[in-house]
Amino acid sequence: MMFMAAEAPQNPLFPVWPELVIGLLCFGIVFFVLAKKLLPNINQVLEERREAIEGGMEKADAAKIEAESVLEQYKAQLAEARHEAARLRQEAQEQGTAIIQEMKAEGQRQREEIIAAGHAQIEADRKAAATALRQDVGTLAVELAGKLVGESLEDHARQSGTVDRFLDELEAKADAKAEAVR
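The structure corresponding to this sequence follows.
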């Protein structure tokens, strides 16, 4: 040290050789230790991380492709379900229309049956009333004729003929009036 102090001032741009050699030797030892021990560990961790990232990206791409496939399947199923629902709705409307038409036809048929039964009942009642009226009128006519003639018209054959003839004449007059009105 004394030796150094005795020398002339040193140029700061040129370092002292022994310090330079010691610095390079220490740097080499540190570099060798770092290169042999620390750098492989760092490279291994970086490689594992790179593989994990690439594997994750591949998994994400696979998951994305699978998700898109599932989405397309769901869209296809949804479209098919909508189509099926539309078809079922159309069938239901057609069946409803057919049922309505059947019910209308059945109602019309029942209405016609009821009307026909009513007309038949009215005709039967009219005939029964006409028969009862004819008998009552015949009896009254015979009694009236017997009182007018002064004798009993109990002969059944004569009575029936007289009554039938009288009623036929009344019906003929009524029919003639009905045709004249028309």
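Residues 88 and 94 are 10 Å apart (CA to CA).
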